[in-house]
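The data are passed on as follows:
___
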Amino acid sequence: MGFVDEFVSFLNKHKVIGLAVAFIIGAAAAKLVSALVNDIIMPIIAVLVPGGDWRTFVLQLGPVKFLIGDFAGAVIDFVIVAFVVFMIVKYMVKEDAAK
């Protein structure tokens, strides 16, 4: 078995192409979720929070700056991504159970 055949066998055995496609789609989905959070959800929250732009909120203790607003935005991003993944997996498991 030549190197090329061995490499193709490796790609097929470990489903590398499928993994690469899933990674690319995941990266695009992450951009979509970030846009949803930054452009739609955060402006609504900013209206509800006194002072407006809460994503720039910084807690400073001496020389240390904690970017609390940015972290809160990342948490919201994560919660949305986790919820979407949960819904997709729940749907797929339900489909498998129906078969």
